[in-house]
Each structure stands twice: as structure tokens, then as C-alpha cells.
Design goal:
heterodimer; A: 331 residues; mainly alpha; Cytochrome Bc1 Complex, Chain D, domain 2; 5 strands; 35% helix; 5% strand; B: 387 residues; mainly beta; Sulfite Oxidase, Chain A, domain 2; Immunoglobulin-like; 2 domains; five-stranded mixed β-sheet; five-stranded antiparallel β-sheet; 31% strand
Chain lengths: 331, 387
């Protein structure tokens, strides 16, 4: 029997607080946003923590990349590689982001950011517009890779056996010691900071894979294919926030790219390269199409320690197009 | 030779503080080292981070409120209880708004439950990392909650027959949400406003939080502001991107709500070495299961060649911490200590390797494997793994 406590919630009150969105679209407000608008908002409000390309800065979440890494030793769980539903992206950005100014974005802004996150994950092209009308059509690639809790079926039989109590093994050896890694926090901040550096190698949450990536095979392309160069110009938009190319190009976050294809690595004057890049230049690395392609496909995998935080161009045809553009646009 | 402690100390002569020197009370200054600690490299920023209960310094089963580990996603919400409302809506007959005063007019109950983060021991999947049970097992606390059965609150609004799921949402800047199956919501969940008799601490969800006994801590939504009844789960960030268990083959388990049976020796342990030398030694620890009680804990001091049943002590209820002791004569030689919990369903805590064999090393969550401490001849203890 109800106690008659509380009062009726009005529809207006419910509407103010009921912000949740489900995979079937229930709760999604009317609105729309495009990739380019999302890029602007993201750059302004999200990139300080999540990185220009969704690669994450510091320990902040990585949002893009990691496709195909889920069974690796260091899986990279991102929206593109792991999240099952796009509605979760919309819902979470809307309820909790930007960090420290939650629920400040308009519906259209959340659509635009969501569209841009799809773009960062190579799921849509740059002219994509996400809206309440096409939202239900959008699918994330990892949707099917989830299963219900099956511990009862998979584990209980083995874990309910009566265990051994005496003479359970002939001998015992220590196989691993925490002191080897020694990531236990110390009381002083200075010590903790130093440990944080060392802990990178041992830290348990996902991070970018450090294994050497296989070189990407780049198809041989004719010297000047206008369509390919045009396609490459589009791909280059991902590079533009850090790199310039052409007559008036200047060093920005990254070096000027004139003459990069078939040119020596680490050769732009007045640019401070990372140590590994400087070392590679010293050793005579030349950016042939295959070397440059391998670097662009997975910068950090190709060259551990590179300053280029870009996660890489995933599609081989995009790499080929980008290289064609870089060759063409060079002054 | 006379023990210098057998002397006339200042506190034997001088007057101490009068009443009201600390109106809410403080531990002895000599206990200043007993505190929550964080692991800075784990997270990007303290406002979205976790710290750990100092299990090695505690005994009994109840965790003092000020030592209950904290986990926030957007910091501790500074909620004014007079401005706090709990809204119940969705597939209900009568959408409701309750004030804190309304909530305290429902019949209430008291229960002791553990709250364990699903990521407790998550840093140890790839091997021994952290020296101290505070860090390996300290994402857990155990307090007495006073609250209203969630069932009564839902019945007040009248759940429609198609209402199979409940979305719980917090009033913090993360607006934390989790989907909870209606069966659990109507079973033993509480809408709680007191812990260990006093108001919830702000960092534990003041003025009101959800209690989801035996299930992962992330579901115990703090600063609870909204309950929505629906016909399917919401698949929000905390139940997709997080709190899903990635298996070795790249497939992830979801909705792994129940916490498996687990135990840890809290002393001796890396932060609580044996300092008294050979002779009578008290080994103690905690055990728990999200599926019931812990009728038995086995302990080994020789790395699992021989096991003995520990002595269970103190009152313990289902889905709460249990205390065990093993009193033994230490011969001063190195020890390899382990404990193994048995729960009331017959489940026996597995080894870490047995877990890895099934789940791989990428799941982050639900690591309930047997913990090993190596004690050397000096009594110092270290987190190790053994064959």
C-alpha cells in the first residue's frame, strides 16, 4: 500500500532532469551537427585533455584509434575500437562533458562533437552530418563483441571444487616480485612524480601499444594523379593543426613539410626534433614512400618517442593519397 | 635495567584537554599514519580518481567512515540537502518527487554491507605491482547503512509490469548513471542516508546514495537524484566503456555485477611487517563474497604446500566483510602467506593463474585471485607471485 509520501513530479520537472539516451534512440532530442563544427568545438573544449586527435594527453582518456587492438597485450579501448553504441557517446558528452562544465552544451553542439568523434575514428567522412533523423543508422564496429556475464557457466564448476589442504605441491618458487617494478606510492610528492615516470612501463590501464608496428605496404602510384592529390588534400586536414606546406609554410607544432617525400628525415632547420627522430636523421633515414607510409600509418609504433602525437592514418589508400599530396604541394 | 617507558610521563602529571576540544572527535595524533592513500600515476586528476582504505591498519570488520575509500568521477558534489530531490519516473503509475524529509518517513532498515570497486586488485592482472594491501585490496569498505528499501520507494511510485530496468543517476557533475535490473532493485537495495549511524560523508554521497549489496561499487550511485524505470538497459558509459571485462579473445563480458568471493591477509603484509621477531604471531585478514557469507577461510604460510582453516571471528552477515585469524608460532624463517575464501554457495577463491587462464590479463575488473605475501627473516613482507 502506498504511504502517500512525496508529491507528483510534473512533466516539466521530468523534462528538465530526464537527459538519458538509449541505444534505440529513446531520449534523443531533436537536433543535428556536422563534423567541421564538431572539430571547432572539440578543439576549443575537449582537446586540452583528449588531445588534438583524440589520442589523450597525460592519463586522460584516449578517444580514437586502437581498432583491432582488443586482443593485444595492451588493448587501446576507444570509441572506435571498443564502445558498442553511439548513443553512449551522445549521452556521456551531454551529461558529463566538458569536464568541469557539465551540461553546458546545446543539443546541436553535442551532435557536432559526436559526429567529430566518429570522424576521428575514421567511421565517417568530413562532410558527415549527424542528426536525430540518422542517429539510429549509425553503428559502432565493436557492437557485437560483448556477451552477458557467463561466470556461472564458465567458471563455477572449476571454482567450486574442494581444494587441496596437505602436500599440495612438492615445492614452491617466487615467480614475480612487486619490488622489481616498485610502483608503490611514496609519501612525498617528489618521489611520487619520479615513480610516475617509471610506472608508465607497468601501468595497468590501456595505453598506446609500444610494439614495433609492421610497415604498411604502400601501393605504387603514378607521379601526378589529380584525383589522388585531391583526396590527399582532404586527408591532410588531419595534419593541418600542426603542419604547414607550400611557399608560405612555417614551422608550427610540427615542421614544415616541403620536400618531405624522398627527402632526408629530420632535416628542417630551426625545428627541434625528438631524440629518436634526430638519431634517425643522423643515421641517414630517407622518407621514401614506404618509410613515410609506415610512419604515417602508426607514428608511435614506427618511431617510439616521436613528438608527433597523431595516432596515424588507418587506411592504406589514404596514406597513398596523403603522400601524393605532400609531393604535389611541396615548394 | 629499567624500561625508560616505566617513568612519570607528562600526561601523568598535566591536565589534558577538557570536553569539546574536538566536538566531532579525532584519532590520536599517534595514529596520523592511518589514512586513505592514492596512487597518483593511476589517474589523470584527483577529482576523477580513487584512493584506498588502509586495511593493514584496521581490525574487526567495520570501516571507520573517514577511512572508507573514495572514488569520484567529477569530484565530491557539494549538495545542500534542503535543495536535494529524488525523482522517480519512467514506467511508473505516479511519477514522484521526494525530499530528504519525505525519504526519512518511509520505514527504514539497518544492514552491514561491503562495497568493493570492481577494479579492486585490477593493477595486479599482469603480476605483482603494488606493495601493500591498502593498494592491492583497499578499494573496499564495510559499514552499517541506515536506509529505506528501494522496493518501498518504487512501490510508492508504482512500477508498471513492463518496467524491467532501473536507471539510477547521481547529482554530481558526472551525473553518474547505471542500469540495474528490476529484480535486484526490488530485492535488497537500499536508499541510504546514514553510515555507521551518522549522516553519509560527502565523499560517500551525502545526503543519499544507493546501496546495491554484493554488486560492484560503481552501481552504488552517490548523491542519488533520479530513478527512471524502463523496459531495457541504457548501456551508458559506466556499463560499456568501463565496467565491462575484456577477455583475451577481444570479446568483453558485460553486466558482471556480482563480486566474487575474495580474501586478503591484512597483517602481516607489506605495510604491516612482523616487528616482534619469532614467537607467537597473529595473522589476520578479511574475506567477503557478493553471493552470501564466508563460512571458511584457508590459510597457508608455506606457499600453498599445506593449508589450515583460519578462525572466523566476530559477527558477520551476508555480503559483508568477515574477519579471520590464524594464530601461529613463527620460527623466524621466511614465509609465503596466502588466504583462500570459501563462500556459502561453495565457491572457492581461485588462484590468479586460474583466473588468467579463463580471462586473460586485460579485463581490469573482478580480479579476486589469491594474494601472496613473502615475509623474509626480518619480518618484512612483499607482494609476490609464486609457482
Amino acid at each position: 500500500e502506498p504511504l502517500g509520501l512525496g508529491r507528483a513530479a510534473t512533466p516539466e520537472e521530468i523534462a528538465l532532469w530526464d537527459i538519458d539516451v538509449r541505444p534505440d534512440g529513446l531520449g534523443l532530442p531533436a537536433g543535428s551537427g556536422d563534423v567541421m563544427t564538431g572539430d571547432k568545438i572539440y578543439t576549443e573544449k575537449c582537446s586540452a585533455c583528449h588531445g588534438v586527435f583524440g589520442e589523450g594527453t597525460g592519463r586522460w582518456p584516449v578517444l580514437a584509434g586502437g581498432q583491432g587492438s582488443l586482443s593485444d597485450a595492451r588493448p587501446v579501448k576507444t570509441i572506435g575500437s571498443y564502445w558498442p553504441y553511439l548513443s553512449t557517446v551522445y549521452d556521456y558528452v551531454n551529461r558529463a562533458m566538458p569536464f568541469g562544465n557539465a551540461q553546458s552544451l546545446t543539443h546541436d553542439e553535442v551532435y557536432a562533437i559526436t559526429a567529430y568523434l566518429l570522424y576521428l575514428n575514421d567511421e565517417v567522412d568530413e562532410d558527415f552530418v549527424l542528426s536525430s533523423d540518422n542517429f539510429a543508422e549509425a553503428r559502432l564496429p565493436n557492437e557485437e563483441a560483448f556477451k552477458p556475464d557467463d561466470r556461472a557457466e564458465v567458471e563455477f564448476a572449476a571454482f567450486k571444487e574442494e581444494p587441496c589442504m596437505t602436500e599440495c605441491k612438492p615445492s614452491v618458487e617466487i615467480t614475480m616480485r612487486a619490488a622489481v617494478l616498485d610502483v608503490t606510492p611514496e609519501e612525498t610528492a617528489a618521489k611520487a612524480a619520479a615513480k610516475a615516470e617509471e610506472a608508465q612501463a607497468a601501468e595497468p590501464t590501456p595505453e598506446a601499444p609500444t610494439a614495433e608496428a609492421p610497415a604498411v605496404e604502400v601501393a605504387e602510384v603514378p607521379a601526378a594523379d589529380p584525383a589522388l592529390i585531391k583526396a590527399g588534400e582532404k586527408v591532410f586536414r588531419k595534419c593541418k593543426s600542426c603542419h604547414q606546406i607550400g611557399a608560405k609554410a612555417k614551422n608550427r607544432v610540427g615542421p614544415v613539410l616541403n620536400g618531405i617525400v624522398d627527402g632526408p628525415a629530420g632535416a628542417v632547420e630551426d625545428f627541434r626534433y625528438s631524440k629518436p627522430m634526430a638519431a634517425a636523421a643522423e643515421a641517414g633515414l630517407v622518407w621514401t614512400e614506404s618509410e613515410l607510409g609506415a610512419f604515417l600509418g602508426n607514428p608511435k609504433g614506427y618511431m617510439k618517442g616521436t613528438k608527433m602525437s597523431f595516432p596515424g592514418v588507418r587506411k592504406e589508400e589514404d596514406i597513398a593519397a596523403l603522400i601524393a599530396y605532400l609531393r604535389d604541394a611541396s615548394e | 635495567q629499567t624500561d625508560p617507558a616505566i617513568a612519570i610521563h607528562p600526561w601523568m602529571q598535566e591536565l589534558g584537554d577538557g570536553v569539546d576540544a574536538a566536538p566531532y572527535g579525532m584519532p590520536s595524533p599517534h595514529e596520523a599514519d592511518v589514512k586513505r592513500r592514492t596512487v597518483e600515476w593511476l589517474t589523470a586528476d584527483p577529482v576523477s580518481s580513487i584512493n584506498f582504505t588502509p586495511l593493514h591498519d584496521l581490525d574487526g570488520t567495520i570501516t571507520p567512515n573517514g577511512l572508507c575509500f573514495e572514488r569520484h568521477h567529477s569530484g565530491v558534489a557539494r549538495v545542500d540537502p534542503a535543495q536535494h530531490r529524488l525523482m522517480i519516473h519512467g514506467l511508473v503509475d505516479k511519477p514522484l518527487v521526494l525530499t530528504m524529509e519525505d525519504l526519512k518517513r518511509f520505514p527504514r532498515q539497518n544492514h552491514v554491507y561491503f562495497l568493493e570497486c570492481a577494479a579492486n586488485s585490477g593493477m595486479e592482472w599482469r603480476g605483482s605491482q603494488l606493495n601493500g594491501c591498502q593498494f592491492t585490496h583497499g578499494m573496499i569498505h564495510n559499514v552499517m547503512y541506515t536506509g529505506v528499501p528501494l522496493r518501498l520507494v518504487l512501490e510508492e511510485a508504482g512500477v508498471k509490469p513492463e518496467g524491467k530496468w532501473l536507471l539510477a543517476e547521481g547529482a554530481d557533475a558526472a551525473a553518474m548513471t547505471r542500469s540495474i535490473p528490476m529484480e535486484k532493485a526490488l530485492d535488497d537495495c537500499l536508499v541510504a542516508f546514514k553510515m555507521n549511524g551518522e549522516a553519509l560523508r560527502p565523499e560517500q554521497g551525502y545526503p543519499v546514495r544507493l546501496v546495491v549489496p554484493g554488486w560492484e561499487g560503481n552501481m552504488w550511485v552517490k548523491w542519488l537524484r533520479r530513478l527512471e524505470v524502463g523496459d531495457q538497459p541504457w548501456h551508458h558509459r559506466e556499463e560499456t566503456s568501463k565496467y565491462t571485462d575484456l577477455m583475451a579473445d577481444g570479446v568483453a563480458r558485460r553486466f558482471t555485477w556480482e563480486m566474487d568471493a575474495k580474501s586478503v591477509i591484512t597483517s602481516p603484509s607489506p605495510q604491516a611487517p612482523i616487528t616482534h621477531g619469532p614467537g607467537p604471531t597473529v595473522l589476520t585478514g578479511l574475506a567477503w563474497s557478493g553471493r552470501g557469507t564466508i563460512p571458511r577461510v584457508d590459510v597457508t604460510i608455506d606457499g600453498g604446500i599445506t593449508w589450515q582453516e583460519a578462525r572466523m571471528d566476530g559477527p558477520s552477515t551476508p555480503k559483508a566483510l568477515h574477519r579471520f585469524y590464524y594464530d601461529f608460532e613463527w620460527d623466524g624463517k621466511p614465509l609465503l602467506l596466502q588466504s583462500r575464501a570459501h563462500d556459502s554457495t561453495g565457491y572457492v577463491q581461485p588462484t590468479k593463474d586460474a583466473l588468467r587462464e579463463i580471462r586473460g590479463e586485460n579485463s581490469i575488473y573482478h580480479n579476486n585471485g589469491i594474494q601472496t605475501w613473502a615475509v623474509d627473516a626480518d619480518g618484512k613482507a612483499e607482494n609476490v607471485e609464486i609457482s
